[in-house]
Structure formats: structure tokens, C-alpha cells
UniProtKB/TrEMBL annotation:
Lineage per the UniProt record: Eukaryota, Viridiplantae, Streptophyta, Embryophyta, Tracheophyta
Keywords of this entry: Hydrolase, Multifunctional enzyme, One-carbon metabolism, Oxidoreductase
CDD domains: NAD_bind_m-THF_DH_Cyclohyd
Species: Spinacia oleracea
GO molecular function ontology, one term from the record: methylenetetrahydrofolate dehydrogenase (NADP+) activity
Protein name per the record: methenyltetrahydrofolate cyclohydrolase
Enzyme superclass (EC): hydrolase
Keyword field contains Hydrolase: yes
Segments forming domain Tetrahydrofolate dehydrogenase/cyclohydrolase catalytic: 75-190
Gene: LOC110802077
Pfam families: THF_DHG_CYH (PF00763), THF_DHG_CYH_C (PF02882)
One BP term from GO: photorespiration
Gene3D superfamilies named among the record's database cross-references: Leucine Dehydrogenase, chain A, domain 1, NAD(P)-binding Rossmann-like Domain
Transmembrane regions listed in the UniProt entry: none
Length: 363
């Protein structure tokens, strides 16, 4: 019995590796025409410590010292995402006119968490605006794992679906790892497959898909003219969805990265040393002004809904960063909403488009 299980595991690993090798050979630079981010392997450098031993690291920070809100730049993720989405839509139109095919994205939503419903609704709307076909399987909170796996299998086997996304987090009673393991590597547009994450971490490797939120965060930095190489970056939160892949991606861009989590000692002090802070915890207003040094660039990934009867939707969104305090310290900051959220969605569209182009051999 044990030997059969081990053989099955080896077959799955070898199949995944073959899929990655075959698909990675097809990866083109199409996304580089849309994004500022280059292929990761083009960023790889030899680590040579000899040339840095005599540098004055205390004087290496080049960000200006801002002291009031009027001088703080707003990183408008909504506007940047719209620019990228427009280019994606043009590419979808070109694809349809040349080969008669359209990218397709499938989403699986389990339960009625308000934040998950918001994310899925935004993704469906964005697909429509970009000309990408979308399908959604909505399952109740009480559904079984088999029902989710059945919906997943249907999307996996549909050749007109080029990206499949299971909206996370799932209810705690469900085996998230088991469900996500059913996602084929080539349709893992969220970028959470172990091979994608492993290749993100390793120098000389290029993942098929970079996870959408980290990819969007770095694109915001690049388009805002923020220098990443050699800067001190602090990522607050270490989730598999955002914190971990963001720290890996920033390292690939040669930042000096520190990850803070719930067990970190003196997080406020460590965060105050950063040139770039990425907050991705999901706790509203966790990061106060005292956590930030003057001139820091702040990327706020947090999205936390709170009741607000005066809002059209009955709620409003707060980020992980106390915006009112941060704007008095930071040189640049993303708002919530309108910062990272739209970028996450548009990166999902781009990943879906990229696989559709590979699948049809379209360039």
C-alpha cells in the first residue's frame, strides 16, 4: 500500500515537472509589452559581497523626507490597472480577430464571506471589461469537498477555460491543500502551485505564473518610479497568498527583505527601518504612523470591510495601514480601496491571457 502511494506521488511530481518544462519553453515576452516587470531570470545577478563592504549603508536611502500629507504621492492602482486592462483588452480583440478564440477564466466561490464575494464580483466585472469569458461556480458554505472537486474537474477538462481560480480562504473544515492540488499547473493563474512558488524562489528559474497580488504590488512600485534594488523592504504578514510570494518577488528584484509576523519581536522598530513597507495581514489600522520612517513607500494590501450604513453597499473598506497617520510620514502610499485591489484583478486577467496565448500558440 505504502509503495503504491509513493509511486503515485513520484508520478504526480514527474508529471508536474514535465508540464512545467514543456510550458516554460513556450513562455514568451508578451507580458513585458504590457508590464514594466521584466522576466525574472533577466534580473539574476551574481552575489558579490566584496564590493559592498565599504559602503555607508546608513546613507544609502534616497527617499525624500516628507513631513505632511500634501507632499505624499498617491499611488493610484485603479488608474494603473485601467491602463494595463486596456492593453489586455486590445490583445484579446487581436486574438479573437486572428484566430477566433477568446481567453476563459473560471472561478469557484464557496460560502458567503463578504470579502470573497467582493473579490469574485470585481473579477467577473473586470473579465467583462477586458473581453475575457468568465464562468463562476457558487457553492454553499455547507458543501462537501467532493462537490468542489467536481466543479474543479469540470473546469480543468474544459479546453475553453484557460485559468481556474478557487477563491481563498475556504471554510476551515475543508482541506485547502487537497483542493488546490487538483489545479493543473498550466491553469494555475493564481500562481499558488508548488512548482510556481518554487520557481519564484529560485534564482535562474521563471515561474509560469507569478501570484497576482505580489505581481501587482511590484508593478505599482516600478510604475511609480520606486527603486527596489538595494532597498530595505519589510513585508508584514507571511501568508502563502501574499506575504510569502511578495517577499520572494522583492528578493528577485534585489531588495533586502524582512518578513514580520505575529511572533516577531519589536515589529514597530523593524518596520521603521524600511524604505518600502508592504502590509498584508488583514487587520485594519495595524500599521500606525509610528511604524514608518519619513519618506517610506507604503503598499497597503489589506482589505477589511466594516459596516457603514451611509455607503452604497452598506460597508466600507479599511486597509492594514492607518492612512490618516501614514500620509503624514510616507513619500508615497496606496489607498484602500483603489490601490492594490485593482492591480490584483488585472494581473489575474493577464495571467489568463498569457496561458490562452500559449495554449493556442498565438503570439
Amino acid at each position: 500500500m505504502l509503495s503504491a502511494v509513493l509511486r503515485g506521488g513520484r508520478v504526480a511530481i514527474h508529471t508536474g515537472l514535465r508540464s512545467w518544462r514543456a510550458l516554460s519553453s513556450l513562455v514568451n515576452n508578451g507580458s513585458c509589452r504590457i508590464l514594466k516587470s521584466p522576466p525574472l531570470v533577466s534580473l539574476d545577478l551574481l552575489d558579490d559581497w566584496s564590493c559592498s563592504t565599504d559602503q555607508d549603508h546608513q546613507g544609502s536611502v534616497a527617499f525624500p523626507n516628507h513631513s505632511n500629507q500634501l507632499n505624499t504621492a498617491l499611488i493610484d492602482g485603479k488608474a494603473i490597472a485601467e491602463e494595463i486592462r486596456s492593453k489586455i483588452a486590445n490583445e484579446v480583440i487581436r486574438m479573437k480577430s486572428v484566430i477566433g478564440k477568446t481567453p476563459g477564466l473560471a472561478l469557484i466561490l464557496v460560502g458567503d464571506r463578504r470579502d470573497c464575494q467582493i473579490y469574485v464580483r470585481n473579477k467577473i466585472l473586470a473579465c467583462k471589461e477586458a473581453g475575457i469569458r468568465s464562468e463562476v461556480a457558487e457553492l454553499p458554505e455547507c458543501c462537501s469537498e467532493d462537490e468542489i472537486l467536481s466543479a474543479l474537474t469540470n473546469f480543468n477538462e474544459n479546453p475553453e477555460i484557460h485559468g481556474v481560480l478557487v477563491q481563498l480562504p475556504l471554510p476551515e473544515r475543508l482541506d485547502e491543500g487537497k483542493i488546490l492540488s487538483m489545479l493543473p499547473l498550466e491553469k494555475d493563474v493564481d500562481g499558488f502551485h508548488p512548482l510556481n512558488m518554487g520557481n519564484l524562489a529560485m534564482k535562474g528559474r521563471e515561474p509560469l505564473f507569478i501570484p497576482c497580488t505580489p505581481k501587482g504590488c511590484v508593478e505599482l512600485l516600478l510604475r511609480s518610479g520606486v527603486e527596489i534594488m538595494g532597498k530595505r523592504a519589510v513585508v508584514i504578514g507571511r501568508s502563502n497568498i501574499v506575504g510569502l510570494p511578495t517577499s520572494l518577488l522583492l528578493q528577485r528584484h534585489h531588495a533586502t527583505v524582512t518578513v514580520l509576523h505575529a511572533l516577531s519581536k519589536n515589529p514597530e522598530k523593524i518596520s521603521r527601518e524600511a524604505d518600502i513597507v508592504v502590509a498584508a495581514v488583514g487587520i485594519p489600522n495595524l500599521v500606525r504612523g509610528s511604524w514608518l520612517k519619513p519618506g517610506v513607500v507604503v503598499i497597503d494590501v489589506g482589505t477589511y470591510p466594516i459596516e457603514d450604513p451611509s455607503s452604497d453597499h452598506g460597508y466600507r473598506l479599511l486597509g492594514d495601514v492607518s492612512y490618516g497617520e501614514a500620509v503624514n510620514v510616507a513619500s508615497a502610499i496606496t489607498p484602500v480601496p483603489g490601490g492594490v485591489g485593482p492591480m490584483t484583478v488585472v494581473m489575474l486577467l493577464l495571467n489568463t491571457l498569457e496561458y490562452a496565448k500559449r495554449f493556442y500558440g498565438f503570439s
